[in-house]
Write a structure and sequence with these properties.
With 325 residues, the protein is α/β, with parallel strands linked by helices. It has a single domain, classed as TIM Barrel, CATH 3.20.20.80. Helix 3 packs across helix 4 and helix 5 runs parallel beside helix 6. The longest helix has 19 residues. It binds 2-acetamido-2-deoxy-beta-D-glucopyranose (2 copies). One 2-acetamido-2-deoxy-beta-D-glucopyranose (NAG) binds next to loops.
Amino acid sequence: MRFSLLFFVLLVASVWVSRALAKDAALEPVSKHGQLAVDGVNLVNQNGEKVQLKGMGLFWSIWMPYYYNKTTVDGIKEYCHSNIVRTMTAVDTISGGYLTDPDYENALVDAVIEAAIEDDMYVLLDWQDFEAENHLEASLEFFDRISKKYGSYPNIIYETYNEPITLEWSSLVKPYHEAVIKTIRANDPDNVIILGTPNYSTRLDLAVADPILDQTNIMYSLHFYAGTQKEANRQVAKDAIDAGLPVFVTEYGTVNADASPPVDEEEAELWYTFMDEYGLSYVNFAISDKDEGAAALIPGTAPENVCREDYLTESGRLVVKHNKA
Ligand SMILES: *[C@@H]1O[C@H](CO)[C@@H](O)[C@H](O)[C@H]1NC(C)=O
Ligand SMILES: *[C@@H]1O[C@H](CO)[C@@H](O)[C@H](O)[C@H]1NC(C)=O
């Protein structure tokens, strides 16, 4: 009797401890956590305590510029229960991007950065490229300008390369990251920099085999779409973390990798359990009103209604439930 009671108490306590990290992200803002850092595999706050960021990513800047302003960021914090928002600066698309109109792209990203600072949120700045090693000069210019202008704010997190298609980590992707890190660090000595990994940010194992050793406050990005990437991909992530690699889920979807439905709720729940257990931060794709499975918003959602309950899709509702869990 006594033993089973003790067992029960221990069970409750261990469940409580493992759940303790996962909590309403909107109540965990920058004023509470301050300057972030990387300690071993963990993202930590100004007191060296583990911190978990949970939030929403905007859609490609070039196709949904109307969400790149404070009205949207307000909604993402308040109604999507987020402490982080991700920008997606288009680089090289048929409709334009940074390579063709840098001033336009800079204005969009600045509007979101300034909104995030006002709203006490972290902001993740993604260079939305698949062949960034071919656009190094533009990327250095982009990150140099932002780190000069905003690098003193603890709100800022850099994501240097969305999704490398190539598998050439050591010869192409790693040298690209090293050049961007050097440029950012000349202006901003401490904000966290997250590095894309090969095969659309799924091959953490290639970074494990040849990590960047002489830098601080860097992490590696993992992307997944629950309908496509499953247990084998979680295993790659677990092995990478066990090997000492700090991991941040800078983009995930509840649907298929091509953004199509259905929401794979069962597999998404397995991912959330894994991420909360390991204390990983995660950012959903996307604040979008496109008629596709990955969109968190129903078609025609105005910035004023972003993340309000009546405007969330099935995917949006699942994501918000976990942001506030
Ligand atoms: C953001 O953009 C939307 C759509 O263009 C507009 O309705 C809203 O007033 C803008 N908000 C701010 C704060 O500029
Ligand atoms: C890349 O990712 C896709 C989708 O997860 C997978 O089917 C494929 O096997 C991966 N290829 C390599 C070389 O890692």
